[in-house]
Amino acid sequence: MSPNSSVHAIPNNQNRDRKRVKVYQLDSEGVWEDKGTGCVAVRDFTWIHVVHEDPLPPSTLNRHDGDPIPLLLKARIRKDADFIRQQDTLIVWTEEDGTDMALSFQEQEGCNDLWTLINDIKKKLAAGVSVPGELLQRNCQISYIDSLSGPDIDALPHSSEEEDNSQDELLRRSGDAYPSLPTPSMGAIKEIEETVFAASKGAYGRNQLSKFILAENYVEKLLPLLEMCEDMESTDELYSLSHIVKMIVFLNEPKIYEYILQDDVFPVIVGMLEYDREYPSAQSSYRQQVSSAQFKQLIPIPDTSIASKITQTYRLQFLRDTALARMLDDSTFAALNSMVFFNQVDIVGWFVGSNGAGEEYLSKVIGVLNEEIEEADGGVTRDEVVLFLHELSTVAKGMQVTLRANYYRMMAKLGLFAIFDYTLGHDNIKIRLAAAAILASILDHDPSLVRSFCLAQVKQKQPQLLISLLISRFLSDPDPGLQSQMCELIRIILETDESALNGPGAALSAISSNDSDTDDFLNLFYEKCMENLVRPVLDLETHMMESMEPQKASLCVHVCSLLCYIIKSHSYRSKYYVLGSAITAKVILLLRAKDSYVRLAAVRVFRTCFGMKDEFYNRHLLKHDIFSAILQCFKDTNGKYNLLNSACLDIFEFIRKENIKSLVTNIVQHHKSMFADVDYVETFKNLVLRYEQNNEGPTVGLGAEDDGSKDAEKTKPDGWAKMDNDEEAYFNEDDDENGAESNTSSSHLVVPTIASSTDAEVGSSATVVSPSSGLFKRSASPLGLVDYEDDDDDDDIFSSRQRALSTPASQVGSSTPTAAASSGRVSFTLNSSSSASAKRRRTASVSSEDGGEGK
Q1: Domain count across the chain
Q2: Residue 69: what pLDDT?
Q3: Do 62 and 184 fall into the same domain?
Q4: Number of Cα atoms under 13 Å in the Cβ half of residue 8
Q5: Long-range contacts of 359-367 (CB under 8 A, 24+ apart)
Q6: Structural domain containing residue 123
């Protein structure tokens, strides 16, 4: 029987079941709709028919005996139709009218037979050959089923890229090792595009296509087509050629990547990618960008494989971030990232490897920057060295912790930290940004490395500390972005372990620990650097507030943010500084600034002080009549709903909720007239109510134990509860208006010294905050202190604290490390002089926690 007139029947039930399918159609809402169950057949050479299974009598379906069984589906096999095989039993395609259809087979063998037949017919149609009848006789004779026999078919499965091992059996049965692509030529580009596109739809097809491309060296055969198409101005072929290359890249085959990244191949590949069918009027210039990016070796790298990996990594990043950025899928992006990462691991590993070649290379490079070598071959400049170290540090930042720790340990030994003397003050913003990025990568790994280096500088009596240099550049850099970055770097350097360094007993706990670098560094910072850091605020005068320059205003905002941080983090050190300097009065001046963001920064400082719930702070601020300034700032907002207005309200709401009685009383008794007319919020009414409740005496809801100051005392560390009578007298003394400038020395409690304005570096005179200076007046009822039975140890505790805090900064880091701390060392190389002609280097060995783990 001819296939044009009928379809041959297969009598056995097994063959009947393997041709049994469910038909699905994708509706407008993206949901697959079940159209029914039937049996599939191929008729008239190119038509797929699915005949409806008829379980009901003909009369029920309004048909008579002998009428044709109704068709569920009639679809034509076209050479331009994209039939997609998914999983083992699913074939999906799009009709000419745009409707998405799917056939879900009950048996895998039936899907295999139809899929093979569809591919054979499409190949014949593409070649312009009529489909012979014998082609349809091969494993494609399909019967119509007269009854619903066999089990029901499951719902349409979701598509998956993972294929069964049964695909290998299918491949052997088909007799093809992998799909065959036409020989590359101008006339075959369209066919190549269609074949590659069809094969790329599934994981199995991509795998076989990759094998064919590698076996036939197919990419090399495609390269000449670019020049031919451009010479003939064949735009359509250029678009197709670009599409072919993209699909080959998306195969994610490492060996294909290695080939296209070769020196003579890569420019041609990116040239093909310049053409995009979606953006016909916007041709890119990838070839020009690649040719202009030349790999320059400061000093020739002895290992050619490492030099090759550096070039390859750049090209992979170019594909990922530029040439293919618009159309990358997750799998290709991950494949490119993986190759980049492993290349970078090999590169950094070579520099820190045990063979010493990488270390010797870096020693020569850093020697150029430190001027120990005048100039390397090829005219290498110091700026080029900085940019090289910036790129290398950026790569090392993404490495594993152990490799990263080895890298920074080696760089510290070679003198990396000494480069900042030259780079942070450079005239070129590009060099300063690179230096800031290098320092940021070090701090991201382990801030203690920078702190230890500063202590090593003190021990070696260096003329300028790294932290002082960073503060100086922070205060003077004209670029606002870099200024903000340096502010963040300073904050990271000042980070401390609050559990170990909190309260007056912190010095004792730090001394008793194996590593006191952080405590020594903070002593150094408050003695030599703190005054210089807040200098922009200390220099403020009243007449400056109305006409403050933007750069000055931005600097004051950054200083205020750092003040907020150190108040919260440095506890007793920051408290001694705030109470013993003029910083509070100067920050109050900022509340009169013209710009609202400057006033907001000042409000945040005072909110931080109140948030500490410390009566010492509270009385100090009351002495400066802080609420008059804050309420005036609040009134100046004219009730506008903005951040400054809300920040001011937050202070009073916090005081009310925490019931800090001394502050509540002061606000209501002395400043009620300033907020009496504020009725658009309930904050001040509730504050007055809180004051009245406090004066009524203990109640059920608000008793004597609800005192905010007592709550604050309960949360203080033990050290505050053990203050002796001399220190208590210090906070009870009357003070004068110039108490912040008192130079009277302490007789019992030694506190950190504050560097004078005449010299922020070594050798500066110091102002000492003493107990007799009387910073503020003590209230009639002293703070309640915790009464411990064992008071005999108080003298020992505070004598230990006195010895710790009285250690001058010039002696920091000079003591011999303990045996427990000497297990690991980081060796720092320092310059003995900032002079350009200096050729000597001295090495200071500073004890630090080793072991390869970053912070």
Answers
A1: 3
A2: 60
A3: no
A4: 14
A5: 359/410, 359/414, 361/299, 361/301, 361/302, 362/410, 362/411, 362/414, 363/414, 364/299, 365/298, 365/299, 365/389, 366/414, 366/415, 366/416, 366/419
A6: 13-171
Same domain, 155 and 96: yes
Alpha-carbon span 235 to 277, nearest angstrom = 9
Calculated CA dihedral for residues 675, 677, 679, 682, nearest 10 degrees = 30
Spatial separation of the C-alpha atoms in residues 823 and 850, rounded to whole Å? 8
- pLDDT value of residue 491: 96
CA atoms within 13 A of residue 376's CA, in its CB half-sphere = 21
Q: How far apart are CA 546 and CA 600, in angstroms?
A: 16
Residue-wise pLDDT for 579-599, tens only, equals 999 999 999 999 999 999 999
Amino acid at 279: Y
In angstroms, rounded to a whole number, what is the distance separating the alpha carbons of residues 311 and 307?
A: 7
| 47 and 163 fall within a common domain | yes
Amino acid in the structure at residue 194:
E
Strand segments (E) across 700-840: 754-755, 766-767, 825-831
What phi, psi does 662 have (nearest 5°)?
Answer: -60, -35
Q: What is the mean pLDDT of the chain?
A: 75
pTM of the entire predicted model:
0.63
> Is 113 a residue whose pLDDT tops 50?
yes
Judge if 510 and 606 occupy the same domain: yes
33/182 same-domain check: no
Cross-strand bridge partners of residue 90: 86, 104
Pick from 336, 343, 341: which is nearest to 321 by CA? 336
Mark whether 107 and 212 lie in a shared domain: no
Tens digits of per-residue pLDDT, 597-629? 999 999 999 999 999 999 999 999 999 999 999
Query: Which two structure tokens, joined as six digits, stand for 792?
Result: 């005999």
pLDDT confidence of residue 829: 62
